[in-house]
Amino acid sequence: MTQSDHFLQRTPDRGAFPFPVEWIDDQPWKVEESLARMSPEEQAQWALRLRGKQRQDFLVLSPCAAEVIRHFPPEEVYQMVKETGEADALPVLSIATAGQLQYLFDLEWWFQDKFNPERALHWIEILDHCGEPQMVHWLLNEEEFEQKVVLLQSLTRIYKRDELTDTCEGVEGLPHFTLDGVYDIFCKISDFEPLRRLLLQLRDADASLYMALMEAVIWYPVTPTVENALRWHLARTAERGIPSFEEALEIYSRFDSEVLKTAVPSADDFQSSETEQVPPSFPLMDSAPDTFFRRCVQNLERLERMNSLQWELTYLANKILVADRCDPASLDARRAAVRKMLGYVNIGLESGAEGDVFKGTRLLEQTWMQALFQAGYGQVQRLRWAAQTLVKEHGKLFEFLLAPGDREQMMALLARFPRIGTFANQGEPLLWRDLESLADIHILQAFLARWKFFARFSRLCLDLTETRAKNFLQESISGPDGEVDIVLWTNTAWARFILFKEISCQPLADSAAQNFLKRVFLPPLIPGDGREINEEWVEGFRQKLISGGTMAWTAEDREFLAGLIDSCRSNVMSQFSRLNPGTTIDWQFTHGLVIAKA
After folding, report:
1. Under the phi-then-psi rule, with left for phi > 0, alpha for psi from -120 to 50, and beta for the rest, what region is 392?
2. Burial letters for 354-383: b for 16+ Cβ neighbours within 10 Å, e otherwise?
3. Domain-wise residue ranges, the chain
4. Cα separation of 593 and 589, whole Å?
5. pLDDT on residue 1
6. What is the rounded CA–CA span in Å between residue 499 and residue 512?
7. Which residues, given as ranges, of the chain have pLDDT below 70?
8. Distance (Å, rounded) from C-alpha 120 to C-alpha 212?
9. Residues near 324 by Cβ (< 8 Å), separated by ≥ 6?
10. DSSP string covering 381-427, please?
11. How confident is the model at residue 438, as a pLDDT?
12. What pLDDT, on the 0 to 100 scale, is given for residue 530?
């Protein structure tokens, strides 16, 4: 184990876990004994090595869980609640601090500068099931008064039984209750029992605050109150690295080399509470172990830089959520933001270090994570621009060349954030993800280079233009999916070469296509067996294409041609090797040749 493995272990001695993790489920009493010998901060450091329910179970076994969680940054508490599930996270929510709850409310109650009363009510209902009256504690400890007023104004209309405010207009049909015979509370929601219990608990805990809120709900004008609450909300979230939309968009600006001259931050720059908090762990824990970024991180020796790096990654993921206008309350959106962030940082780091882990480690020591992200983003955008140029030049022809999977990949490259399609298993639909490494960049660069070749090859060797392709299709029988692609056109040209010694994509008559199948395959050794392709016809076709004199062939062109001919060979084998060309063939149920209408 290297010293730098602390990005998953982050303990004072960076050693192994103090007990087998499975004890949390199998022998909890031994865990309790072990935790009793640790300080709350040490327990917090160990806890952040775990995820989801396992971490929550660890906290439940701690003899000082409330003190331990005070060392958690609010980002980590919120992520744990989302991963565990809101209803299952009650043990954590019951001991969360007011500041940690406020961070949760800021992300859940507000979205794109709008207050969401439905979500606010949802969290009142969730916290109503806690063993401790957490919503009451928050009301008592949160200093920003307008936010509390906005919460109640969004859920209720309140009238006071006096000569000025007892008109009760516009509340017909709304459920109603009163706690003291003075304030009539009309609810804009049908299930108001959690709200009623909250107000009752608040009145019992602090009658003066209860009365102040009642009066404020009555007298504060709604719009200015919401605007004031919004300003406080934006100030709080900015302190936690969640900027405005305009500021967040800066992450998608061009990389500024001047950043390389700026000293990296200290972990202390991210602390904003009296209790020292351990850095968030979830961004690094989500990084794949085989990435270049992860290998460089494992070589970091300074714990101080590791801690500040984790804060940087967390704040960077927050910026992505804002800039992409994603809902931070969505666990899927949060995970996607972290994946994109780690992917672009990995690309920027790998590119800047030229694949050298030693250089990459030096960059991590000296460079802001946002600068690496922007460098990776620049690489991805250059790929997008190359795709846009290619489609602008050959887009109409591509309509007749791209197979469905390649068409989807080309469209994904043209999106604001290019993605790459991969197969989880053969035969299954493509899975799309953000680019994560220079290997992804190289794969897509090769994809574009190949299709740039196919466009030239189609025009210069197959004499195929968008107009000819459209006319040929009008004369042909569509296949089972109505699609044609470069392989079908090349197969057709191959057939016409064998039959007529010409290179053309003109559709084949039924008799010509059958004659092609008779000639392209060798006779089977055993009747009924599948046949093999006559390789002499393959080589003859290849030589004809290269020696045609219409195209200057580079070494890369020859490689692409070899791959295309291999695809043509495989297609002819899969579609026709077991068919009897002496019998009638229903070409509409094949996908290997362009066949003319009868």
Report:
1. alpha
2. eeeeeebbebbeebbbbbbbbbbbbbbeeb
3. 73-239, 245-378, 461-596
4. 11
5. 35
6. 8
7. 1-16, 162-170, 255-263, 266-269, 271-276, 424-427, 478-482, 525-530
8. 20
9. 337
10. HHHHHHHHHHHHHHHHHHTTT--HHHHHHHHHHHSSS-EEEEESSTT
11. 95
12. 66
Distance CA 73, CA 99 (A): 10
- How far is the C-alpha of 222 from the C-alpha of 206, rounded, in Å? 24
Q: Would you say 96 and 133 are in contact if contact means Cβ atoms under 8 Å apart?
A: no
Residue 393 makes CB contacts below 8 A (sequence gap 6+) with: 455
Q: Residue 594 has what pLDDT?
A: 94
DSSP 504-546: --PPBPHHHHHHHHHHHBPPPSSTTSPP-B-HHHHHHHHHHHH
How far is the C-alpha of 125 from the C-alpha of 564, rounded, in Å?
Answer: 61
Q: Is 562 helix (H, G, I), strand (E, B) or coil?
A: helix
Which pLDDT belongs to residue 582? 79
How many Å apart are CA 10 and CA 13, to the nearest integer? 8
> In angstroms, what is the C-alpha Rg of the chain?
33
Instruction: Note the pLDDT of residue 409.
Output: 94
Q: Residue 74 contacts by C-beta under 8 Å, 6 or more apart in sequence?
A: 99, 100, 102, 103, 104, 240
> Measured between alpha carbons, how far is residue 351 from residues 217, 291, 356, 382, 439 in Å?
56, 13, 9, 13, 11
563 with 450: CB under 8 angstroms? Answer: yes
| Cα angle, residue 475 at apex, residues 469 and 479 outer, rounded to 5° | 80
Per-residue pLDDT tens over the stretch 514-573: 999 999 998 876 665 668 899 999 999 999 999 877 788 999 999 999 999 999 999 999
**212, two tokens:** 């102040």
d(CA 556, CA 274): 62
For residue range 381-440, what is the model confidence (pLDDT) as tens digits?
999 999 999 999 998 899 999 998 899 999 999 999 999 998 766 667 788 999 999 999
Q: At what angle do helices 117-127 and 145-155 cross, to 10 degrees?
A: 100
- Tokens standing for residue 345: 């940082």
Check residue 10 and give its pLDDT.
Answer: 41
